[in-house]
Design a protein that fits this description.
The chain has about 130 residues and is mainly beta. It has a single domain, classed as Sandwich (Immunoglobulin-like). The chain contains one helix and ten strands.
């Protein structure tokens, strides 16, 4: 008899969203080299939900170490708008690490998924 690999549910809550305009866009990855963009990670999970929803549920995730990045795409153009490299829209990361210059490293945002269900509360940040 073959047993299935253990899987989990991850619920991500979004705090301190400044409006319900646009979309919340999530990137969840286990690959440090592809955090926070997830562009070259075929196994990354991306989800988009209306900003008014303020939570995202993901089922069937294999146990492991992950990091999540979220943007508040207020104008719904599928990207984080910047001015001179500074975000003009909201952003947030799992574990809510301190933000200095640029996004945090994977190690600052990583968390371990090793139970039936896990919750991450992500606090949105806005510079403009």
């Amino acid at each position: 008899m073959v047993s299935a690999a253990p899987v989990s549910r991850l619920d991500i809550g979004i705090d301190q969203l400044r409006s319900a305009k646009g979309m919340i866009r999530l990137c969840l990855t286990a690959d440090p080299d592809n955090f926070p963009q997830c562009v070259d990670d075929a196994r990354a999970l991306t989800r988009s939900v209306p900003a008014g929803q303020r939570s995202i549920g993901l089922d069937g995730l294999p146990h492991g170490t992950y990091a999540a990045a979220v943007i508040h795409d207020e104008n719904n153009n599928a990207k984080l708008d910047t001015l001179a490299g500074i975000p003009r829209e909201g952003f947030g990361f799992s574990r809510n690490p301190v933000i200095r210059f640029g996004p945090p490293r994977f190690s600052a945002a990583r968390f371990t998924l090793d139970s039936v269900a896990e919750t991450q509360q992500i606090r949105m940040r806005y510079i403009f």
